[in-house]
Amino acid sequence: QSTWGITKIMEFQGQVSIENLDQYLETFYEDKIDIKVNAAKSILYLILDFNNLEYLLEHESFLGTISRTLRDDGKKSMELCLYLLCCFYTCLLYTSPSPRDRQKSRMPSSA
């Protein structure tokens, strides 16, 4: 049963592309919550590929858009709220100092 879940995640992740990030972010300006949930899920899957994290953190509207969406719509959908919080948590872990070196961060230099 757990293998099925991993397979579904891998299939969905294969359909998500960093090239579509602006489209996913624009979706947060729609009125329908289910569309926003799908966009948040897509962004979370992008974040699960650590090769995308630096690009996402340097994107000019990424954090601002998901912050606004969480603030404005987080109470309307538990699923949306959880996806967005997972996005923030993953970004926080990525930019936090390593336990081996508390003085260095992996935060992009331009941020």
Helix and strand topology:
Layout: H1 2-15, H2 21-27, H3 33-48, H4 53-58, H5 62-73, H6 78-95
Helix pairs in contact: 2-3, 3-6, 5-6
Nutshell version of this structure?
With about 110 residues, the protein is mainly alpha-helical.
Describe the structure.
The chain is mainly alpha-helical and 111 residues long. It is built from 6 helices and no strands. Helix 5 packs antiparallel against helix 6.
Which structural class fits the helix and strand makeup? mainly alpha
pLDDT < 50 stretches: 1-7
- The percentage helix is 55-70%
Strand content: under 5%
**Mean pLDDT over the residues:** 81
Shape: globular
How many strands, which pairing sense, and closed or not: the largest β-sheet? Answer: none
Distance between the termini: 42 Å
Structure summary, number of beta strands: 0
Give me some keywords for this one.
mainly alpha, 66% helix, 111 residues
